[in-house]
Amino acid sequence: MRIVITGASSGLGKHLALGYASSDNELVLLARRQEKLEEVAVQCRLRGAKVETIVSDVNDFDVMHTIGTRLAQTQIDRIILNAGISVGHSGGVTSFEDFHRLFQTNFLSVHALLEPIIPKMMAQESGEIVFISSLASLMSMPTSVAYSSSKRALNAYAEGLRYQLKPHGIEVMTILPGFIDSEMTQKNSFKMPFLLTTDAGVKRIMHAIAKKKRFYPFPLRFYLMIRGTLLLPQFLSDRIVNYANFKKGA
Ligand SMILES: NC(=O)c1ccc[n+]([C@@H]2O[C@H](COP(=O)([O-])OP(=O)(O)OC[C@H]3O[C@@H](n4cnc5c(N)ncnc54)[C@H](OP(=O)(O)O)[C@@H]3O)[C@@H](O)[C@H]2O)c1
User: Fold this and answer.
1) pLDDT tens, position by position, 149-159
2) CA of 82 to the centre of ligand 1 (A)
3) pTM of this prediction?
4) How far apart are CA 109 and CA 111, in angstroms?
5) Which of 83, 92, 117, 184 is most buried as measured by Cβ atoms within 10 A of its Cβ?
6) Do residues 208 and 165 lie in contact, with contact meaning Cβ atoms separated by under 8 Å?
7) Which domains does the chain have, with CATH numbers?
8) CB of 85 shorter than 6 A to ligand 1
9) What is the pLDDT of residues 83-97, one digit of tens each?
């Protein structure tokens, strides 16, 4: 299988790359930090995979489009859109600059890369597009408005693509993790509920992809808590959100 993974230099992307590294797979790994990306590539090659690394910033949309066009010259079986950032949790107003960067990285960059790849997958009449969203997209906390918004936009995009591409034999999957140990979450100073180890989180993601789950929120208990809160009368859900926020120290 030829698998493209963005944000493969650390965290979930790195461990997904290692998880798919075998002599059956050819990996294309993309991120900005060359040294870290090469370390991942070396480990993947030791597991038998053929690996191409692309050192690039997903916010450079012209470059993403060019990379997508080049990648689409050969079969692409799976692309995992994982590169993403958070700007931390704060009770203050997010600067426009941060807001813009979050939307570029977590949302807009995705289409810059996919635009040339989707027609290729349509021509193949096969392919899998996997979006790494977040449980935070389901309920926008006051301390992470921009992050939640960017991931909710991603969900909407993924949902539309799924309907659009299903008749062409293309599977579109949206994975919504809760907290998983990574460079991103190591910056959080509050106690993260239901925090998973990187290995445990990535195993769940790989399981969901293997089962072609179109919408996969996890861990289940955390997801059910969010769904339950959203179903409550507004005044009760407001109280719960305020309490959770207070616990975060925001
Ligand atoms: N960890 C969690 O609890 C959690 C929960 C829900 C969703 N997620 C999502 O999971 C994804 C992976 O996050 P993570 O937790 O594994 O965090 P991470 O360890 O910080 O990894 C983020 C990855 O994205 C890459 N990246 C960031 N900005 C980029 C850019 N402008 N251009 C190219 N690559 C870029 C980083 O590589 P370089 O810095 O080398 O470019 C890195 O490889 C993100 O989309 C995140 O929103 C994470």
Assistant:
1) 999 999 999 99
2) 6
3) 0.96
4) 6
5) 83
6) no
7) 2-248 (3.40.50.720)
8) yes
9) 999 987 777 889 999
